[in-house]
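Apologies for my clumsy wording, but could you write out the amino acids of a protein and the tokens describing how it folds?
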Amino acid sequence: MPDLDKHNLEVKELNPFQEFGISIFLITLSILAIFVMSVIWDERSSLKERILELANEADSINFETRILGDEIVSLKDNISKLSNTIDYHFAYGNKFLKEKNFKDAINEFNIVIDNYPKTNHAISARKIIKDIDRQKAIADEEREKELARIERERKKEEQKRKEREKYKPKSKDAAIAEWKKFRNNVEAYKGTITTWRFEIAYISYENPIGWLSWSSKHQVVIYPDPWTYESARVYGFGDVDLPIIREDDWVVVTGKFDGVSSDGVVILKPIKIINEGVE
């Protein structure tokens, strides 16, 4: 055990100033503690009051919810009762009728007739249903007419498409190649039906003559044998429609190869001609 005398330990007394400072510190600490406890107590009281308020509000909401639930049940009962009245079904029948919802309108009017057969509403409902049936019949007839018209237009367009495909002219090179075959072997190709597109260079003895190329080598004459073109156009050439043709017109000619003239012009007997006019 150490000898305290050897360390020369002393207990010093506090002077008055130090004692005063410690006293002030302890008093301040006590006041601060009291203040903190007061604040905590006030917050606790405020929290309790808020909790009480929320509990009251919850009770009020639950009460109002119960009242609202009762009102909803009552409203559903009223709606159910109303939906079984004659006025309800008659009104909805007219509503559907204005919307052209004939199916639902007839259903509503039939309910009126079945459940209230001797009422004025039932009499009116029967008349309305007859009128609806008449309107539906008219609408069905109009619909059938419209469908028939659409079908006729479709067939007409299909016929035009087939005709365009059938009378589609050969390309310039293909037409010239075919012209050469006709020119070089008349008997083998006579009667062949073809379609060419070319410009009319001039009118010779009432017959239009055109060139398949810019040179005058590949000449074609439209000749409705035994008539001239102009005579056949005026007096008729079977069921072939022959349009007026002038110099510089572009034409699409479907015709039957009918020979070669003495001056080397390929003869086409017309089957169908479209005059596209001047380019």
Residues 224 and 269 are 5 Å apart (CA to CA).
